[in-house]
Design goal:
single chain, alpha+beta, 5-stranded antiparallel beta sheet, two-stranded antiparallel sheet, 4 helices
């Protein structure tokens, strides 16, 4: 089954939110309030919210004549930032194959698969608002290849969903 770029972005956001929530639960970040709400119910709420946000984002990228706008996307060779709502870190896949596997694992809610990719060094994490250099764009994957310019992964390159790469 081939996923559209919009579906991939939505799935990525859903999986990321779910994974981050589970990590917070494991660390006990939310303390006593965790007993009041079911993690699966909260996760469903986060997923629904991210789907709505993804739909709004896709709608705002389409001009009145139905054509997708690209003015806000940085061009190859320009510096940009990885940016998403909140302060959550980003998963970066080291190659196109790892990117597709990451998207598949997120769609399947396969946290073990994501962990395997990370342990194998095929996916790494960078912080929100990290400065990057745009190296390539792949419309079929709805992904952008970037080189990390700051932080602990400086110099590494990888693929991220293109909507998170901002001027």
């Amino acid at each position: 089954m081939e996923l559209s770029p919009e579906e991939r972005r939505g799935i990525y956001k859903e999986g990321k939110a779910c994974f981050e929530f589970r990590e917070k639960v494991k660390k006990g970040v939310e303390g006593k309030n965790m007993n009041e709400r079911s993690p699966s119910r909260t996760c469903r709420g986060v997923i629904l919210f991210t789907i709505v946000l993804a739909m709004i984002a896709v709608g705002s990228c389409v001009s009145g004549d139905g054509k997708t706008t690209t003015e806000s996307r940085p061009s190859v060779g320009s510096e940009a930032r990885l940016y998403g709502e909140g302060s959550a870190p980003f998963w970066v896949a080291v190659d196109e194959e790892a990117f597709e596997e990451l998207m598949t694992a997120i769609a399947a809610k396969d946290n073990y698969g994501i962990t395997e990719l990370m342990l194998a060094g095929r996916v790494f994490i960078v912080q929100n608002n990290t400065r990057v250099l745009v190296l390539d764009q792949h419309a079929g994957l709805a992904a952008t290849k970037v080189r990390i310019l700051e932080g602990e992964n400086t110099g590494m390159a990888g693929w991220v969903p293109y909507e998170f790469v901002r001027k």
